[in-house]
Design a protein that fits this description.
A hairpin with a 2-residue loop joins strand 11 and strand 12 (227-235). The protein has helices at 13-23, 42-45, 50-53, 100-108, 116-125, 153-164, 196-201, 253-263, 269-274, 307-310, 314-327, 412-429, 432-435, 453-462, 513-530, and strands spanning 3-9, 30-33, 63-64, 77-78, 127-129, 143-147, 180-183, 185-189, 192-193, 210-213, 216-224, 227-235, 238-250, 266-267, 281-282, 294-296, 299-302, 339-343, 354-359, 375-382, 390-392, 403-405, 438-443, 464-466, 496-498. The model has no long low-confidence stretch (mean pLDDT 97). The protein has one domain (3-530): FAD/NAD(P)-binding domain, CATH 3.50.50. The chain is an alpha+beta fold and 532 residues long. It binds flavin-adenine dinucleotide (FAD).
């Protein structure tokens, strides 16, 4: 088949949700095109498998940023899922919606239909929440969400210490108020990852009208007289033209979506001309407004047992594997972080501006494996950075990954906030509940005085990395830099929408999987409403 009513490009968090909802009434034929393969690898489904799937070209696009002055000139890996489920198949499983105010800010900027009261029902519709019932939580959606069943003494001690330091406990950080400390909620069921592909395609794939095509890389959109008519794709190595009689939805993620638009002539006309690309519409915002969360990673050595020491020998690793095989429990069910904190620094006393990811393990880099000593990481980040970077085509050839310029820590607020976060970390770790278990601060280290802002900032610049949340590169709005309108229609091209993390006008205050799923779910509603 080469003719469909709708084509959705990219089977990631948003694309899977969109294709499911769009195909549910059986009226329309929908093609979901994914550049990666099927999610057959067992490491995708074992929660801790992100250590194996990240950096692995069979599941990861393996992007790398350009050298960035904000992080002392370092160039860092930016993994992005390349498989059914996209990033939700290789991510850390943390389920976070963000703050109500994030969405109200989007709506206040002129994006009608995106306020918290509009989107909250969509978050609930797509989930089945296994925790305390609440009117904001879903009970019959496709995405399985539960509190982390795994915990460790050191993480619970850190949570207690935060309370001792005066921070509140959060009953449900995805409920009425995000603020406080808690254990993370996860996209997990029966000890296995619940990716967007598991949640939204498992049942939907048996529908006659949904065609999920893997190893299908879209290289360009076909646009005739200002209207998108379909795509040019390489499917299992063969060049194919597919047509969409109604609309094409680009859900290829914050890097893939702007790349496809630019290669199709939607972007800054001067940049496109440099690569010999015929301009369809001059949209200078494509690839701009690139926002990410940058995490600084203080590490504390401790006496409590942590994953570092629990898996230090082959024998202990075998025991852990056996435990998982027998009961789907133990360290192999570990999400990327166990302890959550959404806290206010002195720079934002009314609204959390700091997020913690507390991990009962530590490493210099995931590839090098955990340290040989017992330690934990209290990763800290700024929830709403002002800094924004950009993407640039390297050439007019799809196979050349775009240049990624994150532009981290470029503004004074961002610099002061990360310093404030490092000081808060020290304050929490000096409280009795956790300090009794700590033997040393490995980083930043006691040679750096908390009063020395410059030294703390320099440490953050040298010891921080992405927490994998690029957003905003096809931002929604009506200003000159906007790429899509509030119904996610690309300005200047008919029958074409973008729906994924790239449409966020401002990065949400939290992790980005749940918001991307909500965006995919919402575009399907809008398509069905607009095409009656
Ligand atoms: C390692 C890692 C850990 C993370 N941890 C968390 C976490 O714990 N919690 C959380 O909330 N968020 C986390 N995130 C972020 C979150 O998962 C993503 O923001 C979210 O999944 C993005 O969804 P998306 O739909 O925008 O894009 P994606 O999920 O990236 O989907 C895009 C899809 O499009 C496909 N594609 C791209 N180009 C083409 C093309 N030309 N043709 C066809 N297909 C194409 C890709 O292969 C991919 O499948 C993490 C991300 C990573 C990488």
């Amino acid at each position: 088949m080469t003719e469909f009513d709708y084509i959705v490009i990219g089977a990631g968090s948003a694309g899977c949700a969109a294709a499911n909802r769009l195909s549910a009434n059986g009226r329309y034929s929908v093609a979901l095109l994914e550049a990666g393969g099927k999610d057959w690898s067992p490491w995708i489904h074992i929660p801790v498998g992100y250590f194996k799937t990240m950096g692995n070209p069979s599941t990861d696009w393996c992007y790398k940023t350009e050298s960035d002055p904000g992080i002392n000139g370092r160039a860092i890996p930016w993994p992005r899922g390349k498989v059914l489920g996209g990033c939700s198949s290789i991510n850390g499983l943390l389920y976070v919606r963000g703050q109500a105010q994030d969405y109200d800010d989007w709506a206040d900027a002129g994006n009608e239909g995106w306020g918290w009261n509009d989107v909250a029902p969509l978050f609930a519709r797509s989930e089945t929440w296994a925790g305390e019932p609440s009117k904001l939580r879903g009970t019959s959606g496709e995405l399985q969400v539960q509190e982390s069943p795994l915990t460790r003494e050191i993480v619970d001690a850190w949570i207690e210490a935060a309370v001792e330091a005066g921070y509140p406990r959060a009953d449900d950080y995805n409920g009425e108020s995000q603020e406080g400390v808690a254990r993370y909620q996860l996209t997990l069921a029966h000890g296995k990852r619940c990716s967007a592909a598991t949640a939204f395609l498992k049942t939907a794939r048996s529908r006659q009208n949904l065609h999920v095509i893997t190893h299908a890389t879209v290289q360009k959109l076909n646009i005739e007289n200002g209207v998108a008519t379909g795509v040019q794709a390489l499917i299992k190595g063969k060049a194919v033209t597919l047509t969409a009689s109604k609309e094409t939805v680009v859900s290829a993620g914050a890097i893939g979506s702007p790349q496809i638009l630019m290669l199709s002539g939607i972007g800054d006309q001067e940049e496109l001309a440099q690569h010999g690309i015929e301009v369809q519409t001059h949209r200078p915002g494509v690839g701009k407004n690139l926002q990410d969360h940058l995490q600084a990673r203080p590490v504390y050595k401790c006496t409590a047992s942590t994953i570092n020491t629990e898996i230090s020998s082959l024998w202990s690793q075998a025991k852990v594997a056996l435990q998982y095989a027998a009961s789907r429990s133990g360290p192999m069910t570990m999400a990327a972080s166990l302890g959550a904190g959404f806290l206010c620094s002195e720079l934002s006393p009314e609204r959390p501006d700091i997020q913690y990811h507390v991990q009962p393990w530590s490493a210099d880099s995931p590839a090098e494996g955990p340290h040989k000593f017992s330690a934990f990481t209290a990763s800290v980040l700024q929830l709403r950075p002002e800094s924004a970077g950009h993407l640039k085509l390297r050439s007019g050839n799809f196979n050349d990954a775009p240049e990624i310029h994150p532009n981290y820590l470029a503004t004074e607020l961002d610099q002061r906030t990360i310093v404030a976060g490092l000081r808060m970390t020290r304050n929490i770790c000096s409280q009795p509940a956790v300090s009794r278990l700590i033997t040393a601060e490995r980083g930043p280290g006691k040679h750096i005085d908390s009063r020395d802002e410059e030294a703390l900032l320099d440490w953050a610049r040298s010891n921080s990395t992405t927490i994998y949340h690029p957003t905003g590169t096809c931002k929604m709005g009506s200003d000159a830099k906007a790429v899509v309108d509030a119904r996610l229609r690309v300005h200047g091209v008919g029958n074409l929408r973008v729906a994924d993390a790239s449409i966020m006008p401002q990065i949400v205050s939290g992790n980005t999987n749940a918001p991307a799923i909500m965006i995919g779910d919402k575009v399907a509603d809008m398509l069905l409403e607009d095409n009656v």
